[in-house]
Amino acid sequence: MQQPDPGPDPDGAQAIDRRSFLGAVAAAAVAPLPTAAGAGGTDAKPLGPAGVPIVVNGVEHKMDLDVRTTLLDYLREHLHLTGTKKGCDHGQCGACTVHVNGRRVNSCLTLALAHEGDEVTTIEGLGAPERLHPMQAAFVAHDGYQCGYCTPGQIMAATALLDEPCGPTDADVRECMSGNLCRCGAYANIVAAIQQVRREGGR
Predict the structure, then answer these.
(1) 70 within a domain of the structure (yes/no)
(2) Where is each 2Fe-2S ferredoxin-type domain found (predicted)?
């Protein structure tokens, strides 16, 4: 049964029914974010500061990005440093681990523009085929990989571990590396590689 028109508000305001109110709320919720001046259509991007500096593998870059761009996507899609892998994209697998100012970070969980002036190191900046980092060499020696997809993140996390408080036992290492998953199950070899580098004092 149709409800009668309530008529004008006693204070002179326009009356609004529940359906109209909810429609207005829904429209506001899906309204587009503010876009860069002059941008239009589907290529428009949310405003972000231009020329934000970041140092990646010793080289300074200027970021001009959609504010929603993660550090992982910036490295892979803008700098084409694809050694850093996108696994779960939720910070649960560790495949995207990089170093930020010397500390390990899940790059899928942090926004690129939040790292103004920071120094980022990816697997490409850790070593080269002709000059492997000791941890890379140890992973090769101990077969610390199978499919290799998680390996860059494992090595970056393991390298950071060298400067972190971690006990001496294999169990301690497993705990310190628990944020990095290997679906192939190469954990025993990964731990052996890390322990070799720790014994030899590699950096």
Answers:
(1) yes
(2) 50-126
